[in-house]
Specification:
Layout: H1 2-10, E1 19-20, E2 26-27, H2 30-39, H3 42-48, E3 49-50, E4 53-54, H4 55-62, H5 67-74, H6 79-126, H7 137-167
Antiparallel strand pairs: 1-2, 3-4
Helix pairs in contact: 1-6, 2-6, 4-5
Length: 168
């Protein structure tokens, strides 16, 4: 579920909830805020973050719904610290999304392989071919293990015989 929250936090906000920067421009997501902070002049930053308020923290909490980041940002008053916090958080959120996508992709490939194996087995069964004589994926794994073990034994015996006969 964390990946859904991460996507929501990084997604664009409704146009009614854009962050309006005092120096001009509007921000629609956390990555745009990060980009704006990196180029923002000191006066604009001080307008949004000072001892009396922290507009960035409020927007992150109320609009983006990332209370953890908002709380952390509210504790700092320098552009560098806030930029670093947001940059770290963006990286974490992107990592969470990527991790989920990688896992989902792997699951999909594994499921596809299993379906293809089942299809081949069913087709072989329909044509009365015994080349795939197994009833489950565990049976297939066991047969593959036996075949690979047999191959290894054959290789070892061949090497020994080759060595012995090669001496004569």
């Amino acid at each position: 579920m964390m990946h859904k929250k991460a996507k929501k936090i990084l997604s664009n906000v409704h146009h009614d909830f854009k962050f309006k920067v005092v120096s001009g421009g509007e921000l629609v997501n956390l990555e745009e805020l990060l980009k704006a902070l990196k180029t923002m002049d000191k006066e604009s930053f001080s307008h949004h973050v000072n001892e009396n308020k922290n507009d960035f923290s409020n927007w992150i909490k109320d609009v983006l719904k990332d209370s953890d980041l908002a709380e952390a940002v509210s504790c700092f008053y320098t552009k560098g610290e806030i930029t670093e916090l947001i940059e770290t958080r963006v990286g974490e959120l992107q990592g969470e999304i990527k991790k989920h996508e990688d896992f989902t992709s792997f699951e999909g490939l594994l499921e596809q392989d299993i379906k293809e194996t089942e299809t081949v087995a069913k087709n072989a069964e329909k044509t009365n071919k015994k080349s795939f004589d197994f009833t489950s994926l565990d049976d297939l794994r066991e047969k593959a293990h036996i075949i690979s073990f047999g191959t290894l034994i054959g290789l070892i015996v061949g090497l020994i015989l080759g060595y012995l006969f090669g001496k004569w």
